[in-house]
Specification:
The complex is a heterotrimer of chains A (129), B (487) and C (447). Helix content of chain A is 20%, strand content 31%. Chain A is α+β, with helices and mostly antiparallel strands and 129 residues long. Chain A has a single domain, classed as Beta Barrel (OB fold (Dihydrolipoamide Acetyltransferase, E2P)), CATH 2.40.50. Chain A has a six-stranded antiparallel beta sheet with strand order 1-2-3-9-8-5. Chain A starts with 7 loop residues before the first strand and ends with a helix. With 487 residues, chain B is an alpha/beta fold. Chain B folds into two domains: 255 residues, Aspartate Aminotransferase, domain 2, CATH 3.40.640; 124 residues, Aspartate Aminotransferase, domain 1. In chain B, strand 5, helix 10 and strand 6 form a beta-alpha-beta unit. The longest helix of chain B is centred in the C-terminal third of the chain and has 39 residues. Chain B is globular. Chain C is an alpha/beta fold and 447 residues long. In chain C, 35% of the residues lie in helices and 13% in strands. The chains are: A alpha+beta (129), B alpha/beta (487), C alpha/beta (447). Chains in contact: A-B, A-C, B-C. Chains B and C meet through helix 2, helix 3, helix 4, helix 5 and helix 6 of B and helix 1, helix 2, helix 3, helix 4 and helix 5 of C.
């Protein structure tokens, strides 16, 4: 179970980076991609869309399931990972790298503090099993 | 037997050759289509449809039929699907009514209208409901009809804006929340308790003035009867909500218990389940609904009514939710359900539910003896939930069963049980068939334990083996890839 | 008891295994007040009595005789080979193909259906069928709403009245507005202000039988930023320009004319075919091609994550089943007739309908409209449409679907002809109309 120490996590298994120039990158954890199985399709939000923390903003589909992806913090969608349209398997292969989902321009960086730190997420994921 | 055992089975398009044809319609002089219709209305190229001789056509579809499991060929205990025997006499019955046109003068359709009227009456009697519509084309369609009627009811009472929520149990079939969404409602799920029934406390907490309806199946999706249904109904009605009955599991109680008596306001039936109209490989189904008197004004139109000493179709229902489909219903299947009810009568239908529950409990015991876990240790109704032993995957067991010429049970439903297997043998299977099924399952577990890797490679003897479903979803090919099209 | 296999010994053995005394004991946990109510049902019949009873009912129906009924369903030639193949018991008694290894029959036939519907309509992706044409139109409107994120649709009055009624029921539930465009001389004018509409919905041929200028309607829809939803008679596409060629984004309709009996209105099936870009919005089942572990081509239900059993409340639709068996009849029938046979049927229907119109005009009858028609047209009548229909029926001719007053045509009926119609059938119809006083020189009637 690969859980990166430089990220913060939502209980719904999204990860978020610290803000870099006001932008936070979001993806799903290694645990989440493993649970989902082979990703076949990703529905990404439209750039420009304003989202609140906890809003369902994207969908990741495998053959047997479809998972809503929730915005871990509030902000405006600045960019989405277009490469996932043709190669959704990047989410399985590189959930923290090439499998990133979208970037948000955040107003209130303090919202990140409400997310789980890597240890807390490790514990939460273990409990789900 | 010319079907290839190795290699790919040909597409009808691969059997095509230019200039071939099978059937010939009556011929007429070729009209001047450009003059009659306008040149710009005509298509430039013929559509690419198969060109096959009649014998090639017959070989193709006969061989395809041989690549298909069916009730007629294989035991098929899919939970909540009620795969009972489809009587052949029903096919002869249906054929008697197939040439009627929906718009022929009603006085020339009196036999069919009478049949529909009587079926309405009989379904109302069996469910304890006051009015019935035979229109909906499927269970999900019946659900939408019923929920829209409930919505109209609340609107008529000035509570439409207030009531925006539908409650479903967490084990509900996917159509329930999907239907609620289509009708403009949001959905709240309520947990089940350890016995597999709706958690009454959770249910109480979920009720409130914003709830429009509660959708339940009884017996529920884990095959147990909601023993506190009268209490649940009372609580829902006190909160001003309407109670909706998903009739998917009626086979457990048909003739013995009426949903109307349980307190339900709206009921839909799945005639392709309880009343043995054929599943057809996925449809057409039929999903008639029954309602209590206070909802009758909202039924979809047209209604089949008594009229002028005979029967007719009426649109005179000012508060109707409107039309849910074209014409009147899936008449071909309604005839089959009618024939079934007439064949069995009340005693016969009571025996149907009695033997359905008997067979399900019998198979539960046999499967437990064969090594499967049974999460709800109690008498079940017409179906039950099982799990393979720890470490064995339901999917693999299902695939291994195919090599025995037996269809697996429903897998991975309901969602509230891990590695769920839902089994519904129905009343038309003999004990030897059920014994053989349990024996095959036992053998599968033994082989799984003795030969690692055996299950994961199953099936071995079917026309095709495990499919690459990921590829099918990532690179969808949804029509025949003609040679002149980019890959 | 029919269909129930257990002897008393079987029941005894089963009860012993379970550990209860009687079948009734299996229901002991149910509240006593609910158990075994008095239910009134007719007494059981054996097979002989059943068929006699049903034949007696059928005898009160009238199905023989010349027929010119249309209005959305028509009696066409269906070769004997079609039901023999489509109604093989493996196809009739199979379930939905969720275990593809043992369901290649249904899956491949469905894939072939999807291919044929795409070819007929000239669009990219067909689903595996829906309940009927009317609900398919409603689902198409909802698709357009999702895709454009607009909350209004435009529909021509030329779309079948029952279809528009179903559309209203479905769309009202989600708060979507419907604007109806009236016909001019039996055809749809370019709608004023399609801006803001998620789609323009028009039918070809329309309910009155007339041919529409679908290309112009499509342009107007697209200029307004909406989709064109074309409601089409699939058999007509053997000769008519297909929706894909005139800019339609979605083609829907009822498939009955492709090879199912009329069955008093059902079951038939609906179809929906869309442009590639709309694939993810497409409701209903889809069969895709793939390979098995040995590399053999195989078919499987795919993209299921759109559907209710996975997305539940967020599914594109609550639709669970398709109309597999009736769609299969159409698939077999299209393969049996081939492009040549379907073309002959469509052209033959056009020929017979125009022949009928000519003969009627020669006898003083008046068609209500001048617009070109396909194989159905509107006849002005002296009596109300339903009266005319009954009078014709009394003379052994099935004809005269009444035209609703919403069209402003006064008394009128629809008359359709197919390749099955003969000169003698037309003689009978003309004779019956004459006897009913409908062919006397009438003053011009206007609605």
């Amino acid at each position: 179970m690969d859980i990166r120490d430089n990220l913060r996590y939502a209980t719904s298994h999204e990860w978020a980076t610290e803000p870099d120039g006001g932008l936070v990158t979001v993806g799903i954890s290694d645990y989440a991609q493993d649970q989902l199985g082979d990703v076949v399709y990703v529905e990404l939000p439209e750039p420009g869309r304003k989202v609140a923390a906890g809003d369902a903003v994207a969908v990741v589909e495998s053959v047997k399931t479809a998972s809503d992806i929730y915005a871990p913090v509030s902000g405006t969608v600045e960019a989405v990972n277009e490469a996932l349209v043709d190669t959704p398997e990047k989410i399985n292969e590189s959930p923290y790298g090439d499998g990133w989902l979208f970037r948000l321009r955040v107003e209130d960086a303090s919202e990140l503090r409400t997310l789980l730190d890597p240890d807390a997420y490790r514990r939460a994921a273990a409990e789900e099993d | 037997m010319a079907e290839p055992r190795r290699g790919s089975f040909p597409s009808i398009y691969e059997r095509s050759r230019p200039g071939r044809r099978a059937a010939r319609p009556p011929r007429h002089d070729e009209p001047d289509l450009a003059a009659l219709l306008g040149e710009d209305q005509l298509r430039d190229d013929a559509p690419r449809l198969p060109e096959v001789s009649e014998l090639d056509l017959v070989r193709h579809f006969t061989q395809l039929a041989h690549r298909q499991f069916s009730i007629d060929g294989n035991v098929y205990p899919l939970g909540s699907c009620t795969m009972k025997y489809n009587p052949k006499v029903h096919e002869d019955a249906a054929r008697l009514f197939q040439d009627l046109h929906p718009y022929q003068a009603p006085e020339t359709a009196q036999g069919t209208l009478q049949l529909l009227f009587e079926l309405q009456r009989d379904l109302g009697a069996l469910t304890g409901m006051d009015a019935v519509s035979l229109q909906p084309a499927a269970g999900a369609h019946g659900e939408l009809t019923g929920i829209l009627m409930i919505r109209a009811y609340h609107e008529a009472r000035g509570e439409g804006e207030q009531r925006k929520v539908v409650i479903v149990p967490d084990g509900a079939h996917g159509t329930n929340p999907a239907t609620a969404s289509m009708a403009g409602y949001s959905v709240v799920e309520v947990e089940s308790d350890a016995r597999g029934e709706v958690d009454l406390e959770a249910f109480r907490r979920a009720l409130g003035p914003e709830v429009a309806a509660v959708m339940l199946t009884n017996p529920n999706t884990v095959g147990v009867f909601e023993s506190r249904i009268l209490e649940i109904a009372g609580l829902a009605h006190e909160a001003g909500a309407q109670l909706y009955y998903d009739g998917a599991n009626l086979n457990a109680i048909v003739g013995r218990v009426r949903p109307g008596d349980m307190g339900f306001d709206v009921v839909h039936l799945n005639l392709h389940k309880t009343f043995t109209t054929p599943h057809g490989g996925g449809g057409p189904g039929t999903g008639p609904i029954g309602v209590k008197a206070h909802l009758a004004d909202f039924l979809p139109v047209p209604l089949v009514v008594r009229q002028d000493g005979g029967y007719g179709l009426s649109e005179d229902l000012p508060h109707s939710i409107g039309r849910m489909r074209s014409f009147y219903g899936n008449v071909g299947n309604l005839v089959r359900a009618y024939a079934y009810i007439r064949t069995l009568g009340l005693e016969g239908l009571r025996r149907v539910s009695g033997h359905a529950v008997l067979n399900a409990n019998y198979l539960r015991v046999k499967m437990q003896r064969a090594g499967f876990r049974i999460p709800y240790q109690r008498l079940n109704m017409h179906e039950f939930v099982a799990q393979p032993p720890e470490g064995v995957h339901t999917l693999d067991v299902a695939k291994a069963l195919l090599d025995y010429g037996m269809h697996p049970m429903t897998v991975y439903f309901p969602l509230i049980v891990k590695e769920a297997m839902m089994v519904e043998p129905t009343e038309t299977e003999s004990l030897e068939t059920l014994d053989a099924y349990a024996e095959a399952l036992g053998e599968v577990l033994e082989r799984a334990a003795a030969e690692p890797g055996f299950l994961a490679g199953a099936p071995y003897d079917t026309p095709v083996r495990r499919l690459d479903e990921v590829r099918a979803a990532r690179q969808p090919v949804l029509r025949f890839p003609f040679a002149d099209e980019a890959g | 008891m029919p269909y129930l296999p257990h002897s008393p010994d079987d029941v005894r053995r089963a009860l012993e295994t379970i550990g209860v005394d009687s079948i009734d004991a299996l229901f002991d946990e149910l509240p006593a007040s609910l158990r075994n109510p008095d239910i009134e049902l007719p007494p059981a019949m054996d097979e002989t009595a059943l068929m006699a009873h049903l034949r007696a009912l059928a005898a009160s129906d009238v199905t023989g005789g010349p027929t010119f009924l249309g209005g959305g369903m028509r009696r066409h030639f269906i070769p004997a080979v079609t039901p023999h193949l489509a109604l093989q018991s493996e196809f009739v008694t199979a379930y939905t193909p969720y275990q593809p290894e043992v369901a290649q029959g249904v899956l491949q036939a469905t894939f072939e259906f999807q291919t044929m519907m795409a070819e007929l309509t000239g669009l990219d992706v067909s689903n595996a069928s829906m309940y009927d044409g009317a609900t398919a139109v409603a689902e198409a409107a909802l698709l357009a709403v999702r895709h454009t994120r607009r909350d209004a649709v435009l529909v021509s009055r030329g779309v079948h009245p029952e279809t528009r009624a179903v559309l209203a029921t479905y769309l009202r539930a989600q708060g979507i507005a419907i604007q109806t465009v009236d016909l001019q001389d039996g055809r749809t004018p370019v709608p004023a202000g399609p801006d803001g509409a998620a789609c323009v919905i028009a039918q070809q041929p329309n309910h009155l039988g007339s041919l529409e200028d679908m290309a112009t309607l499509g342009e107007a829809a697209h200029e307004g930023g909406g989709l064109l939803v074309a409601v089409v008679d699939p058999l007509s596409l053997a000769v008519l320009k297909p929706p894909g060629a005139y800019g339609a984004d979605v083609a829907v309709g009822d498939g009955q004319t492709l090879g199912n009996p009329t069955f008093f209105g059902g079951p038939s099936f609906g179809f929906m075919v869309v442009r590639q870009e709309l694939l993810r919005q497409l409701p209903g089942r889809l069969v895709g091609q793939t390979a098995d572990v040995e590399g053999r081509r195989a078919y499987v239900l795919t993209l299921q994550a759109r559907e209710q059993h996975i997305r539940r409340g967020k599914a594109k639709s609550n639709i669970c089943s398709n109309h597999q068996l009736t769609a299969l009849m159409a698939t077999v029938n299209m393969a049996a007739l081939g492009p040549q046979g379907l073309r002959e049927m469509a052209a033959g229907s056009v020929r017979q309908a125009h022949r009928l119109a000519d003969r009627l005009r020669a006898e003083g009858a008046r068609l209500a409209l001048d617009a070109p028609f396909f194989n159905e047209f509107t006849l002005s009548t002296r009596q109300p449409g339903s009266v005319v229909r009954s009078a014709l029926a009394a003379r052994g001719v099935h004809a005269g679907v009444p035209v609703g007053s919403e069209y402003g045509l006064g008394h009128a009926v629809l008359l359709a002809a197919t390749e099955l119609v003969t000169e003698r059938d037309m003689d009978a119809l003309l004779g019956a109309l004459r006897a009913g006083g409908e062919l006397e020189a009438a003053e011009v009637r206007h609605g």
